[in-house]
Amino acid sequence: MIVGSVEKADGARPPSEENGITSTISARTVLILIGVAVILRVGQEIFVPLALALLLTFMLAPIVSFFRSRRIPKIAAVLLAVAFAFVSIAVFSFVVATQVANLAQNIPTYQRNIVAKVDALAHTGSDNSVLQKVQRAVERVGEELKFNATESQKEAPVPAIDQRQPLPVEIIARSNPIETLGNLIIPLIGPFATAGLVVVLVIFMLLEREDLRDRFIRLVGLGDLHKTTAALQEAGKRVGKYLLMQLVVNTLYAIPITIGLWLLGIPNAILWGLLTLVLRFVPYIGPLIGMILPLFLALAIAPGWSLVAWVAGLFIVTELTSNNIVEPWLYGSHTGLSSLAIIVSAIFWSWLWGPVGLMLSTPLTVCLMVLGRYVPQFDFLDVLLGNQPVLRAHEKLYQRLLAGDPNEATDNAEEFLMEEYLVDYYESVALPALILGEADRQRGVMTERQIALVASTALTLVENLAEIADDEESDEESEHTPTDEIKELPDGRGRTVACVGGRSALDRVAASMLAQVLAIQGAGVVTEPDGASPGGVPALSAIESADTAVVAFLNGRSKSHARQVVRRLKRLKPGLRVGVLLPAADGDQYPKVAAEELNADFVSSSISEAIREALSSSAAVELKATVRRLARPTQRRSIEA
């Protein structure tokens, strides 16, 4: 069997956590966020053009860099990129406006089909008993109101009625041509002014890109140039790549939609294709809106329902293909945002800035996530918005053990074991989780009931993994190949090892894990179902047939107790090799213990190391005699005096 060290079990950790900083939300941080949200809401007219210009700058920066690499002057490269972008937007807007005008002219021709379908639905619902009851109730209310009105008219005196016919009156308002022209132009000034401001901002941001970067670094990150530079690079890379790949994905989505709608005979297929291309920049809601409009048109132009079904099928098949094949192939999850964060951010930014905020929601949230990844005060943003695991594998396992949930713990273990071996899982995930539990037990924050729950849940997990252990035992030549340093465990056939828990119930769980891996190696395993005796030593029957005994201690301070257990085991069976599994004693807090200090044959800090030592053919270390030093009588008297 092959064993390799596994690093991926811990998952990707933000830099702040790697430096020992935990994610906390202080009252000051909450107040700052509320204040920023209020400022963004109040200053919408100022910040929306800035956000649009920043977004376009991210999109056009690669194009400018491409032109610059072809030795084109900086000003010319920026003007070419901006001209290309805004000419494309102008052409797109012209095509959409033309298609909309054409659609508006043809809408009256679809009125007959729409009325026929509404009548069909009405006749279909007429046989429904619920609809009939509602209709009758409405009729009764109407009759009652009509009856009350009639009675009131009978009681009131009838005024004299003038029999003369009313003359039609036509009011002609004389408008000033200047006012009419102003009413047409003034509503257009705002959008055109915003567009012009965005163009100017984009040009200057591209021209002064390096200078703006240096000023930003000087303003917020001069104390840590490395971290600030990394944050800027990551934000620019994520946002730019997301926008570029999203444009490619939306184009690949719009092309089959346009062709399919044209083949199905839907009018203005180019319009619907272009709208789907733009609307897919809006997460989740955009594709739905882009599908509703062609469905409504299919409902209007055809007398039956088959065209509606074909259009719906076209959108569903294209959407599934794009989501499951095209998007993972092109960019996967390069934004680094979780699905829930994308939805919540879309709601928040649309509330803050309306439709523009909805389109900008994903890029702006990516910037917030990067801010949280590199600024310790806002690292909770990375936890809330990011898609990286926030709990490492052993922390997640310990949380499941505390909750008494062996099922989810088993599912996570099986997912890990799809690519690695059982000994890898025990060493990198299970034992660190038990060490966390032992640390909580020593701090006194766990009750006896919680300790028993964690231990019983962990033992259930070990039992659930027995089938995987049997598969590994029957198939030594597994196809799974660890990617790190490769080491091979020895063959245990013909040898018997006793696995003993040192003191607590968690120690006995660690001994059970060791026993399971030893069984995979073909060794005979002896364990005590009821754990160790009150003195910490199993009965002689448990070690009588064993060649080696391994005692597991999760407490790194158990040196004295481990020494006593080793001596008692060697006295019970002279010639028995006794080792100690002490995984916590391998760091700064608990330095590694030498075997001579415990009078043991070996001391191991990992399961694989304990297996190698336990299956070794080395001779047992003789038990050292205890030398008692008694004080002389004269010294005693002097002390008493």
Structure description:
The two termini are 68 Å apart. By secondary structure, this protein is mainly alpha-helical. α3 (44-69) crosses α4 (74-106). It has helices at residues 15-18, 27-42, 44-69, 74-106, 111-126, 129-155, 177-207, 209-220, 225-264, 269-279, 285-301, 306-330, 339-353, 355-374, 379-385, 393-402, 406-416, 422-443, 448-464, 466-474, 505-520, 540-543, 559-572, 595-598, 607-614, 633-640, and strands at 2-4, 486-488, 496-501, 524-526, 548-552, 577-581, 602-604. It contains 26 helices and seven strands.
Topology (elements, then pairings):
Layout: E1 2-4, H1 15-18, H2 27-42, H3 44-69, H4 74-106, H5 111-126, H6 129-155, H7 177-207, H8 209-220, H9 225-264, H10 269-279, H11 285-301, H12 306-330, H13 339-353, H14 355-374, H15 379-385, H16 393-402, H17 406-416, H18 422-443, H19 448-464, H20 466-474, E2 486-488, E3 496-501, H21 505-520, E4 524-526, H22 540-543, E5 548-552, H23 559-572, E6 577-581, H24 595-598, E7 602-604, H25 607-614, H26 633-640
Parallel strand pairs: 3-4, 3-5, 5-6, 6-7
Antiparallel strand pairs: 1-2
